[in-house]
Each structure stands twice: as structure tokens, then as C-alpha cells.
Amino acid sequence: MVLTIAKAYERALDVFETPEYAIIWLTTPNYALGFKRPIDMLSSPADSEEVFCTMGRIQHGVFS
Fold first, then answer.
1. Of residues 63, 37, 3, the one with CA closest to residue 51
2. Residue 39 pLDDT exceeds 90
3. Structural domain boundaries enclosing 36
4. Which of 8, 27, 35, 53 fits a 20 to 30 Å CA distance from 14?
5. How many structural domains comprise the chain?
6. 64 within some domain
7. How far apart are CA 45 and CA 53, in angstroms?
8. What is the 3-state secondary structure (H, E, C) of the chain?
9. 1 within domain boundaries
10. Is 7 contained in some domain?
11. For position 43, what pLDDT does the model report?
């Protein structure tokens, strides 16, 4: 799980460009994730994939 959190943080840094915004996004309940905190979803492989896909959509400007 530690590696997954590290990978999620690296990806969030890439998407949100600052450590502050990356941490805020990872620790704030998210509408696209059913109002769950992304960091809480990283313990399950399926939920982790959903978090990474959501970051990919954000990075590419796909919000629906």
C-alpha cells in the first residue's frame, strides 16, 4: 500500500503541479469518486485504478 500511495502522490504532483494541491486533492472527498477521499481508496486495487483514472481524466480535461 505504501508504494501505491507514493505512486498516487507522484501522479497527483504531475497533474496538479504543486505538492500543496496534490495533497489537497488526495485528502479531500471527491465528487467523481463518490465523495470518498482518494487516499482512502488506495488500499484496494480496483479503487486505486479508479483514482488513477480520475487523475488521468482531470489531466486531459475530461470532467464528465
1. 37
2. yes
3. 15-58
4. 35
5. 1
6. no
7. 12
8. CHHHHHHHHHHHHHHHCCHHHHHHHHHCCEHHHCCECHHHHHHCHHHHHHHHHHHHHHHCCCCC
9. no
10. no
11. 95
Q: How confident is the model at residue 25 (pLDDT cuts 50, 70, 90)?
A: very high
Residue whose entry in the numeric block shows the C-alpha cell 496538479: 16
Q: Which amino acid is at 13?
A: L
Nearest to 43 by CA among 15, 3, 11: 3
Cβ atoms of residues 12 and 25 within 8 Å:
yes
Q: How far apart are CA 13 and CA 35, in angstroms?
A: 21
The grid coordinates of residue 5 equal 500511495
Amino acid identity, position 8: A
Structural domain contains residue 8: no
Cell 487516499 identifies what position? 39
